[in-house]
Write a structure and sequence with these properties.
67% of the residues lie in helices and 2% in strands. With 183 residues, it is an all-alpha fold. The protein has one domain. Strands 1-2 form a two-stranded antiparallel ribbon. Strand 1 and strand 2 form a beta hairpin. Helix 2 packs antiparallel against helix 3 and helix 4 runs antiparallel to helix 7. The two termini are 25 Å apart.
Length: 183
């Protein structure tokens, strides 16, 4: 009796890193990262700063693009690898943004004035009323939550770096494994 593909990879002890598998893994991990951030915000009541919101953009974009990669993997592997190249670039930029944000939180460098500078003092009653009508911005230079000593920006940087590696693995798939050009 012939073994199915899932039985053969289980017996060999190695999981096949196909374009489809990598696309689904990237979409799933992006959804988990984004879901965690949204849960911390909406269930935990911790409001995100502007840099936190900027870091979410990569995950929002990656989910449909990675699913498209998985869908195209069998019929259009070149398109899958091109999308994975774009995802790798996006996640590398996002990892850099996470490192930048974590550095601001640790006080290694100054952050943007919009969320980590000192707000100007109101000098007139009109300016005071105007400052009260503007929304309160969450500061970027104070970590709202640390888990095992690492802030959420640090975890975002680590997840983005890992997703960069996965996307690069898929983008270079035919170069790394010439015999494995199938999905």
């Amino acid at each position: 009796m012939r073994a199915t593909s899932s039985e053969s990879w289980a017996a060999s002890g190695s999981f096949p890193l196909t374009l489809r598998t990598l696309g689904l893994a990237i979409a799933g991990l992006s959804a988990v990262g984004l879901g965690g951030a949204l849960a911390i915000e909406h269930i935990g009541g911790i409001r995100p700063c502007p840099l936190c919101l900027d870091q979410r953009i990569a995950y929002y974009a990656a989910i449909p693009l990675a699913l498209l990669t998985a869908y195209l993997a069998g019929a259009q592997p070149l398109w899958s690898r091109l999308i994975l190249t774009g995802l790798a670039l996006g996640f590398a930029i996002n990892a850099g943004l996470g490192v930048y944000h974590a550095g601001i939180e640790w006080g290694w460098w100054p952050g943007p004035d919009a969320c980590s500078g000192i707000a100007p003092l109101a000098t007139t009653p009109g300016a005071l009323l105007e400052s009260l009508s503007q929304p309160n911005v969450v500061r970027c230079d104070a970590a709202a939550l640390r888990i095992l000593g690492l802030s959420l920006a640090g975890y975002s940087a680590l997840l983005s770096a890992f997703l960069t590696a996965l996307a690069l693995l898929g983008a270079l798939r035919s170069r790394l494994y010439p015999a494995a050009t199938r999905a």
